[in-house]
Specification:
The structure holds three protein chains of three kinds. Chain A is mostly helical. Chain A contains 24 helices and two strands. Chain A has two domains: about 500 residues, no CATH class; about 100 residues, no CATH class. The C terminus of chain A is likely disordered. Chain B is mostly helical. Chain B has 19 helices and two strands. Chain B has a two-stranded antiparallel ribbon with strand order 1-2. Chain B is globular, with a radius of gyration of 21 Å. The mean pLDDT of chain B is about 85. Chain C is elongated and about 120 Å long. In chain C, helix 9 packs parallel to helix 14. Chain C is built from 31 helices and eleven strands. The relative contact order of chain C is 0.06. In chain C, strand 5 and strand 6 form a beta hairpin. Chain C is about 65% helix and about 10% strand. The chains are: A mainly alpha, B mainly alpha, C alpha+beta. The interface between A and C is large, with 65 and 69 residues.
Chain lengths: ~600, ~500, ~775
């Protein structure tokens, strides 16, 4: 494919940049900055090629590159994008040069190390967004951690050591359990199909765990993601990390790193373990709502503006989580959209705070006041970003908030409990958002100038305006014309929901035979092919054809079911009428394994039931 | 016991012979060199170790990849497994000799017998890796242990070292007694000490004196657990590690551990299948599961509060032994090939990493005092960025953060444990993973001290090109093994 | 009918805003090296609004009138077609499709005319009033932005687009109230307005969601389709859906249109420049709620309960605000409460189904209230910026134009025939009297009428008081101020004059149904709202709308009510004239100084302490909760107890481990031996478990004896089953499966619980497991 070069290139470019930057002599700080900015900008430009190659009508992964990587493990270097990750990738490449540019003056020690850390961070983030192999994903996931640790720890504020350690331990604690769940899936997939793989697509397609296993696997994945989001009450690392991180670090942290939590839920945890997701969704949705309100309340109590914005992230990301678990197209697309918007606005807010911090070396609200008079351009930009964050219609934040709340409101109560009440409570976040953001804005910009130091503040320089301009432009554009974004998400989100519901139905139908270890099953298989098959009694006969029918039909059936779900009270997908066709062995079940046909059939049955 | 002596068989144990002969030569040569001249011995020692490693690699290449291997003298088995560990041991030996020389220069401590004993210890270790008989395993262990006792106390003016060696010796003696008694009981139950024969006898298990067998196996488990310093048989380790000269500590933490695991796998995984020992729910893995859980957890928690980096690394090595035990357990519970491969890979990764870490610690100490406190690393990054970077790589690898060898090793071990016995080990894996998260704290503490703190005083590290070479090799190997582990897994037999 | 010009109406002012806030500065800076001059600024600002007015007018008298005429000639059945334009698809997700679409029908046509016309006048007025303002361009930018947003609100073809405007006007209101942001009080007033509006907007969102869920679309065409009408009647939470949707939307309207309980922001909003108050807080933005209710007339007409709420809140607000206006001493504050009160009138109108009357009053009010504010501006301009009416008096001799126009507005709001307010207020009163919704309390409509009549009396009184204190009597200002009093420039007086003309004349578009007089506005608006004659199609509408004024009251009745209203107006004026003709009379001064009346006066003067009450029960608890949550939950529970607590526990364990590791060999050896013993003891115990599968009338049991002993099962270990639950394993069937790890037997032979014993071969200890068997399930049990 002609497009296959893009993803490896955007992964490789920052990496090469990082290595080259480290080779620059220590004294050439300016050169290092230029290099870093140049490489990240080039990455952004190349990433735009994805948009060119991307087919918005197509819900599957595109621009896929699949290379064997660790033969013993059957792990692959497999990357690709779909409508869900597409814009997050662009957001990443978009934000990184801005963050680097913003640090031109703020970072003056260990410049090349700083640039290298930023670029490696970019590699990690891009990798985690495009990885289609669980193992590869996990590697990138962890790779993100270390540069961020250094960013906070080396270029951070006074309590940077505490904050950086807290950040790492929190995130690690969550992600390692995710690793266990990856092992589990790997082992199960191997036991059931005979092929051990970490390929996400294969796992998603072939592996239907029992409800109980899904419950725990979702818990393991969910913990990692919930910490990253961060979901109340796992959020306390965030304010510390934000306050201590340098501006560029905060921008990346808020703008991008937090997105991985939601992204992980949508990409991995939910489609792999729909039953687990359904079991956990009530709790997560409630925590999300608590987070929305709690984050807003606590943000209002902060005397430090950076901490205020940090808590606002807790509140905003709550919308995203809620939208995802609503399991409606609106909720999910709104959630992704809210992520993009949050990346822009909160990133922008942190940049703005950084601008002030560079000038005044304080972030206490009480130290400011009346800045509009001194810095009208800055104030205008700050106002637009603040309003974008507060979800003013016509700016980017509104679309996401509106769709997530809307999506939650119309959600089926099979997905989350009392959807309307949750939506209403979440919507109060809209009020509180205005309360604390405008409070912040007033404290900083309005009123008389109370501190002499503020009388001599300089307005934005050309470089600083260049940093803000793309953000402001995007805040407007995304608020006024969200359609292209939503449109390219739609097929992928629909596909996600189809997979989810199909798999949920399969989980419900499967008859799990306890006490038969995979080893025994394999032994029974080899001595007496098919011996195990009669023991797998189909619980619902009709589901078998649905399960092994060509994917398109299954999709259509599930889509119908989804459509029903949206209006009618929840009908289980497995009730969707499907003609009772015998299992067609020649047609080939949707498993891409290289094992003998007999095992394959048994394996598929085991997998799908 | 069909094999008789065949001179041609000696070819298969050339690495072992090289090590033994070099060791003897060194002991002899020691008397001809005085004072600083003794450092020339180092060259010979390194050459010997490298020769052993190279021959082992060649033999590895030409050994057919079947499980049996070739029986030598009825006591040793020459297979890929053995050569793999031989290379590992030789590598550790070479590094220890190199670093040891610089370290001796720096600390005004010329000890010529150091190299001879080192090579003889390596010989014992190689015997362990090749053991095909309980007796040869015991001989290997004793050869190694006696030498190690001496190495620990080789810096004679150090009181701590002497005390540590004494403790180590007393405890080791008890463990040896356990081992010997265990061998006797197994012999009583099966009528043989040859591992292959035992395996055959066990196939007909109902004819055996099960009580004797179980007791013997249990005693062997305890003895080997002592050698790998599994909790609660680890008490010697922190004291011995702290008291020993730093290069020796590194050697103990790596080669000793690796060879002990080699014996573990030889005896337990390859001979006593879990099924054949009616012991609790899981056969001989029942006690090991407890040991592994305790080892990982307590060692980690203890490491959290260590101010002395050698002690911290001692506890870290204990907890790593716990992880390797998980792999051994998985191998015992039906996932033999994958788990054995995992343990071997893990030990290789761990060896390279830990050697590197100890090398940095050794390098940091100046003239009269070792700098072994975590605080001594303050601000290292701003003065010696290269060393700090290398140390960071080692710490991340020990903490199991990708893309390093340490991560992949842990990953592979836990993965093999998940596959074993229908997820029966799931909780152990979860425990191990939680422990990994905890361990990040103390590993990153070192990184943090190097990068986030300002230097307290000037660093006057050792000046030795050899050390730079060691660090570069170790760091690159760790990254290479982490990013492209396929090749190494192939070597380990996966 | 599709047309492609509507978008220009909101776009032009928005472009003006873009120019004045951003582009103009950039262009001028680049080209001329300085900011654009005031002339350029106000040319662009006024020009765009006027252009927008021109476009709107041409559409109104052109295509829209044609459509109306077609409908009118076609027997006025159903609704007339509207001009629509879909600019592009804004949001499309799942089954939600929202176009950025505009709709100009007779209702929004009227609104657009009011907004652009009054807006133009106020823009013009501002050029004089704000002439000395340093942030001239910013002011006009905001004003244009507001006009654009308001036009989006009015013209939007679906609720979300309306919501864009809805929040957009809120934003501009925020910016303009806090325009002089150096004053913290002003800035706070802006924030208060925004936040209170947001509370309403929150409810508005919920209302929209409810509607979408019930109806499946949010554009107006869908919202009044047959399916929607049916959905409105569907039950929800013990009421009709229409009630809840209507209620939530109305709460939104309460925020925007300053009704109880969300009116508190409006009086504070007077902090903004006076033309802003005229435009936003009198003529246009605050009427958005009324417009919305009229726009959603089909929804409200479907629930008499919702109508009752709207009308009730409106009436209460009308009275309450009128009372508060009695005691205000600030010119603009009086007008602010007056606005709140008049908005209450409008809500009663739309609430009792007299939509035309409500909108009619909206239109007339837009003119005379804008005029009042502008006159206030003119007066304050003359009085060096002070708005304290106690310090005024006798200004008519200095400000002839302002005075003359003010009289017109004053009489209009007092409801004196033939001024505009007379007609519109009268229609609302008549509508209220005759209203009688299904399920309403008997006499509810009459009660509304009484309340409104009292409010109208109050209105006449406080407005006359205002007039007297400002224009009549002697001047009470200090000499310094008095020496500066002057009439305003033409740019301010011309708009005043135009507004005065309209205040007099605009009432004639809605003449009462007396003597065959034509009610032009009613015919015109009827083309776009729910009407009584729809009852044949929509039963739910019939229940509430058959009560429109003309149905119950004959001509005589109407005339009687007009007379009563007029008397009330004259009474109010007369009372005020008597008390305040020459400044506050002695009676007033005495009564307000001490005694019971004074206490009442104090309460009213302090606005019934509502702000203080809200502070106590809403604001202060909120602030307290914010701080408390942060201190308790975040800092204490999560960080201290959980995060640091777990670190502490780990630390303690570490300390214990260090204590054990004390360096003494005998302790080590002891631990070695004890450890070995313990491990031996605890791990040798056998365990046993089994699982079962029920299928086809047979149960299959599978024992799991663990990895260790399985290979040596046959001879050396013992496995005993008890299937029938009798506690032993002596039955033949059970003997048969002795030492078998798998057993299959008919379901009938299996008791309620099954026991399995296992004795290990070495230590001869026995393990046992007991499990209940669920035979009914076709699934599996005993998962481990």
């Amino acid at each position: 494919m002609a497009s296959a070069w893009v993803l490896p290139t955007i992964l490789g470019l920052p990496l090469i940049g990082a290595i080259l930057v480290m080779l620059i002599p220590r004294s050439e700080a300016g050169l290092a900055r230029g290099f870093g900015f140049g490489f990240s900008l080039a990455t952004f430009c190349i990433s735009l090629a994805i948009l060119g190659y991307f087919d918005s009508e197509y819900g599957r992964f595109q621009l896929v590159v699949d290379k064997e990587w660790i033969p013993g493990l059957n792990a692959h270097f497999k990357v690709g994008v779909d409508g869900i990750s597409l814009w997050l990738v662009i957001l990443t490449t978009f934000t990184t040069p801005i963050a680097i540019l913003s640090a031109y003056r703020a970072v003056d020690k260990h410049v090349r190390e700083f640039i290298a850390a930023m670029l490696i961070l970019e590699v990690g983030m891009l990798g985690a967004f495009v990885a289609l192999d669980m193992f590869l994903f996990y590697i990138f996931w962890e790779v993100m951690l270390i540069p961020m640790y250094f960013l906070i720890g080396i270029w951070g504020g006074k309590r940077r050591i505490y904050a950086s350690i807290k950040f790492v331990i929190y995130t690690m604690a969550g992600s390692l359990l995710m690793l266990v769940a990856i092992f589990y899936m790997y082992a199960k997939h191997g036991a059931i199909t005979g092929e051990y793989t970490t390929d996400f697509v294969a796992l998603q397609k072939n592996l239907v765990l029992s409800s109980e296993a899904q419950f725990w696997c979702f818990a393991a994945f969910g913990l990692a993601f919930a910490i990253k989001v961060p979901l109340f009450p796992l959020h306390t690392w965030l304010p510390d990390a934000h306050v201590e991180a340098p501006t560029a670090g905060s921008v990346i942290l808020a703008g991008l790193l937090l997105k991985f939590g939601i992204y992980g839920f949508i990409r991995f945890a939910m489609p792999m373990f729909p039953a687990g997701s359904q079991a956990w969704a009530p709790l997560l949705a409630i925590l999300a709502v608590v987070g929305i309100i709690y984050g807003a309340y606590v943000a209002f109590a902060q005397p430090d503006v950076k901490k205020l914005v940090a808590y606002s992230s807790v509140s905003h990301l709550g919308f995203c989580v809620l939208g995802v678990f609503a399991m409606t197209a609106m909720g999910i697309e709104g959630s992704i959209y809210a992520m993009l918007s949050h990346g822009l606005t909160t990133g922008g807010l942190f940049l703005a705070i950084g601008v002030l911090y560079e000038r005044r070396h304080t972030r206490r609200l009480a130290e400011f006041g009346g800045l509009w008079k001194q810095m009208p351009v800055f104030a205008g930009i700050f106002l637009i970003i603040t309003l974008g964050s507060a979800g003013l219609p016509g700016l980017s934040g509104f679309i996401g908030e509106f769709l997530t709340i809307f999506g939650t409101f119309v959600a089926s109560d099979a997905s989350i409990p009392v959807p309307r009440l949750l939506a209403a409570l979440a919507a109060t976040g809209v009020i509180f958002g205005a309360v604390y953001l405008l409070y912040m804005f007033q404290k900083m910009m309005f009123g008389p100038i109370t501190h002499e130091a503020n009388r001599t503040l300089k307005d934005l320089s050309g470089r600083e305006i260049a940093v803000f301009l793309p953000i402001v432009a995007m805040v407007f554009f995304m608020g006024i014309y969200p359609r292209p974004f939503l449109k390219s998400m739609e097929p992928a989100v629909e596909r996600f929901m189809t997979t989810y519901h199909t798999k949920l139905a399969q989980t419900r139908d499967q008859t799990y035979v306890p006490g038969v270890s995979p080893k025994q099953a394999r032994a029974a298989e080899s001595s007496n092919p098919g011996a195990l098959v009669p023991r797998l009694q189909p619980a619902v006969a009709a589901s078998a054809p649905a399960a092994v029918a060509p994917p398109a039909d299954a999709q259509a059936a599930a889509l119908q079911a989804v459509a029903k779900r949206a209006t009618a009270p929840p009908v289980a997908v497995d009730q969707a009428p499907a003609p009772p066709v015998a299992v067609d062995q020649t047609a080939g079940p949707p498993v891409a394994t290289k094992i003998d046909p007999q095992t394959r059939v048994a394996g598929v049955k085991g997998a799908l039931r | 016991m069909t094999s008789t002596f065949n001179a041609f068989d000696l070819m298969y144990i050339i690495p072992l012979l090289v090590l033994a002969v070099t060791g003897l030569l060194l002991v002899l040569a020691e008397s001809f060199f005085k004072g600083r001249q003794r450092n020339h011995l180092m060259g010979l020692a390194v050459a010997g170790a490298i020769a052993a490693a190279v021959t082992a690699m060649i033999l590895f290449r030409y050994t057919p990849d079947d499980e049996q291997g070739r029986l030598v003298l009825g006591m040793l088995k020459a297979d890929r497994f053995a050569y793999f560990f031989t290379v590992l041991i030789s590598f550790a030996t070479a590094v220890t000799a190199l670093v040891g020389a610089s370290y001796q220069d720096e600390h005004n401590w010329q000890s010529g017998e150091f190299y001879g004993i080192l090579l003889l210890v390596a010989t014992g270790m190689t015997v362990m890796a090749m053991a095909a008989d309980l007796v040869s395993a015991f001989i290997g262990i004793e050869t190694m242990s006696l030498g190690i006792y001496v190495l620990v106390t080789s810096r004679r003016q150090s009181l701590r070292g002497t005390e540590a060696a004494m403790k180590y010796f007393v405890m080791g003696a008890v463990a040896s007694a356990f081992m010997l008694y265990g061998i006797a009981l197994v012999y009583g139950a099966t009528g043989t000490t040859n591992l292959d024969s035992i395996e055959k006898v066990l196939a007909n298990v109902q004819d055996l004196q099960l009580g004797l067998l179980v007791a013997g196996v249990f005693l062997l488990v305890i003895a080997l657990a002592f050698k790998v310093a599994a909790i609660p048989f680890h008490m010697w380790a922190p004291d011995a590690y702290e008291g020993a000269p730093t290069p020796v500590t590194g050697f103990m933490a790596t080669a000793v551990k690796a060879s002990a695991f080699a014996v573990f796998i030889r005896i337990f995984v390859n001979t006593f299948e879990a099924e054949s020992t009616a012991f609790g729910h899981m056969g001989w893995t029942s006690p090991l599961i407890v040991l592994a859980a305790l080892t990982m957890t307590i060692a980690n928690v203890a490491a959290l509060r260590q101010e002395n980096i050698k002690r911290m690394l001692a506890y870290s090595s204990i907890s790593h032994a716990g992880v390797a035990l998980v792999g051994v357990i998985a191998a015992g519970l039906g996932n033999r090939e994958a788990a054995t491969t995992a343990v071997m890979y893990y030990l290789a990764a761990y060896t390279v990493t830990t050697l590197g870490a100890f090398t940095v610690v050794a390098w940091l100490g100046s003239r009269d005092r070792e700098r072994v406190l975590v605080d001594d690393f303050s601000g290292l990054a701003s003065r010696h960025p290269g060393a700090a970077l290398a140390m960071t790589v080692f710490m991340l690898s020990l903490g199991g953060i990708p893309p390093t060898a340490g991560f992949f090793g842990k990953f592979y071990v836990f993965k093999s444990a998940m596959e074993a016995s229908d997820q029966a080990l799931l909780w152990l894996v979860i425990l191990g993973v939680i422990n990994s998260a905890v361990s990040i704290y103390y590993y990153l503490r070192v990184v943090m001290t190097m990068y986030f703190r300002d230097p307290v005083e000037e660093f006057k590290p050792l000046r030795a090109g050899a050390i730079t070479v060691v660090l570069v090799i170790c760091a690159l190997a760790i990254l290479e093994m982490g990013i492209l582990p396929g090749f190494w897994l192939g070597l380990a037999g996966g | 009918m599709k047309t492609n010009l509507i978008f220009l109406i909101p776009l032009l002012p928005l472009l003006g805003a873009l120019f004045n806030l951003f582009l103009g500065r950039v262009i001028w800076r680049v080209a001329a090296g300085r900011d654009p001059s005031r002339r350029v600024v106000h040319f662009v600002a006024v020009g765009t609004v006027v252009a927008s007015f021109a476009v709107a007018l041409s559409l109104l008298v052109g295509p829209l009138f044609e459509l109306f005429w077609k409908w009118h000639q076609g027997g006025k059945s159903g609704l007339s077609e509207a001009l629509t334009q879909s600019v592009y698809t804004w949001i499309e997700v799942g089954n939600l499709k929202l176009d950025l679409a505009f709709r100009m029908d007779t209702l929004s046509g009227v609104m657009v005319m009011v907004v652009t016309f009054v807006g133009s006048l106020i823009h013009l007025y501002s050029t004089g009033y704000m002439a000395d303002e340093p942030r001239y361009a910013a002011y006009f930018g905001y004003l244009n932005l507001f006009t654009g947003a308001m036009l989006i609100l009015v013209l939007g073809d679906n609720l979300p687009v309306m919501f864009i405007g809805w929040e957009g006007v809120g934003l501009c209101s925020y910016l303009l109230i806090g325009f002089w942001f150096e004053n913290n009080q002003f800035a706070y007033a802006g924030r208060k307005a925004f936040v209170v509006n947001r509370i309403g907007d929150f409810a508005f969102l919920i209302g929209m969601f409810l509607l979408f869920q019930a109806v499946g679309g949010l554009d107006y065409e869908t919202l009044r389709s047959d399916a929607a009408m049916a959905a409105y009647r569907s039950p929800l939470w013990g009421e009709r859906l229409a009630f809840w949707a209507g209620l939530f939307l109305f709460i939104g309207a309460c925020g925007k249109s300053a009704q109880i309980p969300l009116y508190v922001w409006l009086p504070d909003a007077m902090a903004g420049p006076t033309p802003v108050s005229a435009l936003i807080h009198a003529a246009t933005m605050v009427t958005a709620g009324v417009y919305m209710v009229a726009r959603m007339s089909f929804l409200y007409a479907s629930s008499t309960a919702a109508m009752a709420v709207v009308a009730g809140v409106g009436a209460l607000t009308a009275l309450f605000a009128a009372i508060m206006a009695f005691a205000q001493t600030d010119f603009k504050k009086v007008l602010a409460y007056s606005t709140v009160s008049q908005l209450g009138f409008m809500f009663v109108g739309v609430g009792v189904g007299a939509y035309v009357a409500g909108i009619f009053h909206l239109v007339t009010h837009a003119f005379f209230k804008a005029g009042l504010f502008l006159a206030a501006g003119s007066v304050m301009h003359a009085m060096s910026g002070s708005g304290d009416i106690v310090k005024m008096g006798g200004l008519k001799k200095w400000l002839p134009w302002t005075h003359k126009t003010f009289v017109a507005y004053w009489l209009a709001i007092c409801g004196i025939i033939p001024f505009a307010g007379f007609f519109s207020k009268d229609e609302i009163l008549a509508g209220a009297w005759s209203a009688e919704g299904q399920g309403w309390l008997v006499g509810y409509g009459e009660l509304l009428w009484v309340v409104l009549t009292v409010a109208a009396l109050g209105t006449a009184f406080y407005m006359s008081r205002l007039y007297c204190l400002v224009f009549e009597g002697e001047c009470r200002a200090d000499d310094e101020t008095r020496s500066h009093i002057h009439e305003s420039p033409w740019s301010m007086t011309v708009p005043l004059a135009i507004l005065a003309v309209f205040s007099v004349g605009i009432g004639f578009i809605g003449l009462p149904h007396v003597g065959g007089l034509p009610n032009v506005l009613e015919s015109w608006l009827s083309a776009s709202i729910a009407r009584p004659d729809f009852h044949s199609t929509y039963p739910s509408i019939a229940e509430s709308l058959h009560l429109s004024a003309q149905n119950h009251l004959g001509e005589g009745g109407l005339l009687l009510f007009m007379a009563i209203a007029l008397v009330m107006g004259i009474a109010g004026i007369g009372a005020a004239w008597k008390l305040y003709r020459k400044g506050p009379s002695k009676l007033v001064a005495d009564k307000s100084a001490s005694g019971f009346a004074a206490r009442i006066y104090q309460v009213v003067y302090n606005k019934f302490y509502v702000d203080e009450l809200y502070d106590r029960i809403v604001v202060a608890p909120f602030r307290w909760a914010c701080q408390a949550l942060f201190d308790v939950v975040d800092k204490f529970v999560i960080d201290l107890i959980f995060v640091n607590g777990s670190a502490f526990v780990v630390g303690v364990v570490g300390r214990v481990a260090r204590w054990v590791q004390n360096g003494q060999v005998h302790r080590y050896l002891g631990l070695l031996v004890v450890g070995a013993g313990c491990i031996f003891y605890f791990t040798r115990e056998p365990t046993i478990d089994f699982s079962y599968t029920v299928s086809g009338g047979r149960v299959t049991f599978q024992a799991d004896i663990g990895a260790g002993p399985s290979a040596i099962m046959s001879k050396t270990t013992e496995l005993r089953w008890d299937f029938n639950g009798d506690g032993d394993s002596n039955d033949p069937e059970e003997q048969r499966f002795r030492n078998k790890t798998e057993a299959q037997l008919p379901i009938a032979d299996v008791g309620s619980q099954v026991t399995l014993w296992y004795t290990d071969p070495v230590f001869k200890s026995t393990a046992k497991t007991v499990k209940p068997v669920d035979k009914n399930s076709d699934r599996v049990g005993g998962e481990q």
